[in-house]
């Protein structure tokens, strides 16, 4: 996919009054908050559109900086790296942690236990 066609698609999606995410799901998520009693249709539309644009921005940033650009793919590791390395997305590091092997995790746990025993 060429860079120009990708930019054109992003521009069309940004200016579109249509939404791709199901508004009923967004409404359900919004209503799950105890602070929300009723949701205006305009607020629901704007929240849905903002969510779409955010996901699109995250995906595009991850794709641009990711390793799958030559294969035209986007992987979890691309998203996790973007969340960790880009200041804008650092609030997502708990949601998109880098994957580690179980043996590496166990080694780090053992190292922590050894440190705690020494103290």
TrEMBL record:
Residues 20-80 form the Transcription factor CBF/NF-Y/archaeal histone domain. Keywords: Acetylation, Coiled coil, DNA-binding, Nucleotidyltransferase, Nucleus, Phosphoprotein, Transferase. InterPro entries: CBFA_NFYB_domain, Histone-fold, Transcr_DNA_Rep_Reg. It comes from the Eukaryota. GO terms for biological process: chromatin remodeling; DNA-templated DNA replication. GO terms for cellular component: CHRAC. Pfam families: CBFD_NFYB_HMF (PF00808). It is found in: Nucleus. Its main location: nucleus. Signal peptide: none annotated. One of its GO terms (molecular function) is protein heterodimerization activity. Heterodimer with POLE3; binds to DNA. Component of the CHRAC ISWI chromatin remodeling complex at least composed of SMARCA5/SNF2H, BAZ1A/ACF1, CHRAC1 and POLE3; the complex preferentially binds DNA through the CHRAC1-POLE3 heterodimer and possesses ATP-dependent nucleosome-remodeling activity. Within the complex, the heterodimer with POLE3 interacts with SMARCA5/SNF2H; the interaction is direct and enhances nucleosome sliding activity by the SMARCA5/SNF2H and BAZ1A/ACF1 interaction. Within the complex, the heterodimer with POLE3 interacts with BAZ1A/ACF1; the interactions are direct. Forms a complex with DNA polymerase epsilon subunit POLE3 and binds naked DNA, which is then incorporated into chromatin, aided by the nucleosome remodeling activity of ISWI/SNF2H and ACF1. Does not enhance nucleosome sliding activity of the ACF-5 ISWI chromatin remodeling complex. This is Chromatin accessibility complex protein 1. It comes from Chanos chanos.
